[in-house]
Amino acid sequence: MIARAIPVLCVGLAVALQSATCGQAAGGPPEPVRPPRPSSWTLSPSNPLIAISRTPDGLSGGGKGPQIWNDPSVLQEDGGYSMWASMGHGGPKGVAIYKLRSRDGLTWTVDNGGKAVLEPGDRGKDFDWFGVETPSVIKVGDRYHMYYSVYPDGKIPLVTMGHAVSRDGVHWDKQGELRSVTEPVGRHEGNPWGRLARAEPAVLYRDGTFYLYFTDVRCRTADCKGDVPVIRGISLATSRDGQTFQQRGTEPVLMPGAPYTADERWEGYSTPAVVMHDGVTHLFCDVFRKAGKDSVQEAIAHFQSRDGVSFELVEPDIVTAGADWAAVSVRSPSVLIDGGTWKMWFAGDNYDPNRGKPRGRIEAGIGLATKNLR
């Protein structure tokens, strides 16, 4: 997935395609390029709220192996909060999307009798048979819309998007791949934007129009080689019906820039979340950096725009990797305004892919950060 996957787990964790012995002490994170900037956001002392070691109530069965929760999408409704989140057991194959409920945003219970609400399709028939993840859910009138990421027909590392609709947020009707946007994925000639991925959607609805922000990935050079071979931006497409979209411009509306520059091995932005407040579009996203042989989301940043197209950086490093359960990666923000408070749920983990066999208990899950609006 564009958002990095946690490999196959044992009691702690086993690296994909390797065996591992789980020991006593987890390995440290990759060396940071600089100290994180001070943040005005406060991390919940209850973090991680949902994790391998703290699974939510109501989960049916649980499947094979520990539960790796990721990619929250949260709405405030019915006197509390609804969350749609990805859950798998190591790697992207078979990942499904679950709905959870909470009264306080801290303690979560799995809805739908503990079963997934959106599952992979049928192999050989459906483009999303390999796995479904990174949901973005909104409600327009009496209908929910979910946009989500998939590996089309299992063609890793390519990633595209699908769309589903629902009357209750639990029972979903898939509408198919967003081919009007994802057509460039897998097309290498000319090194187009979207060559590697157009996925990880974030959707906003305003004045009869769907605004779809998504991660747009291509190589920096045609041969896709170099110290930092990949570049990641956030693009925008709009639609009146929610299914057929037209891209705004030919390049991402948010391109990588200071302080996240390529000379410090930053690749760019991914997994956006969007919120409208007082006529301003607020965009939150994580930031990828090349760390050893792997790419890791090491920070979450906040941008804003008056027109939804031209963005400026408001606050870098809202949350950064480097401590406890999210020692290596922070990613996939979902943000809303509750009264006078920003609330941001996000995913993270302490798995360092560059250390070989892990030592100790690996943690991965979903946490919460807050900030006073004024």
Distance between the termini: 36 Å
- Low-pLDDT segments, ≥5 res: 7-30
Name the average pLDDT.
89
Order of helices and strands: EEEEEEEEEEHEEEEEEEEEEE
Number of strands: 21
Rg estimate, integer Å: 19 Å
Globally, the shape reads globular
Largest sheet entry: 5 strands, antiparallel
Share of residues in helices = under 10%
Task: Give the assembly state of these chains.
Answer: single chain
Number of helices: 1
Output the structural class.
mainly beta
The amount of beta strand, in percent, is 35-45%
Would you kindly provide a written description of the structure presented here, covering whatever features stand out?
With 374 residues, the chain is mostly beta strands. It is 1% helix and 45% strand. It has one helix and 21 strands. It has one helix at residues 179-182; strands at 42-43, 50-51, 68-77, 80-88, 96-102, 109-110, 133-140, 143-150, 160-166, 172-177, 197-206, 209-219, 230-239, 246-247, 266-277, 280-291, 294-305, 312-320, 329-338, 341-349, 364-372. Strands 1, 2, 19, 20 and 21 form a five-stranded antiparallel beta sheet that branches. The chain is globular. The two termini are 36 Å apart.
